[in-house]
Amino acid sequence: xxxxxxxxxxxxxxxxRSHMTVEAxxxxxxxxxxxxLQQS
Length: 40
Known about the structure:
By secondary structure, the protein is an all-alpha fold. It is about 45% helix and about 0% strand.
């Protein structure tokens, strides 16, 4: 039987730079998934 995938990260970022990187990635992903790549 396949193992259940977790939606929680294994580790959380500890440094401020890491927090900023994670936030930027999440923001970009949200933008793309909500139709941000549609051309006018």
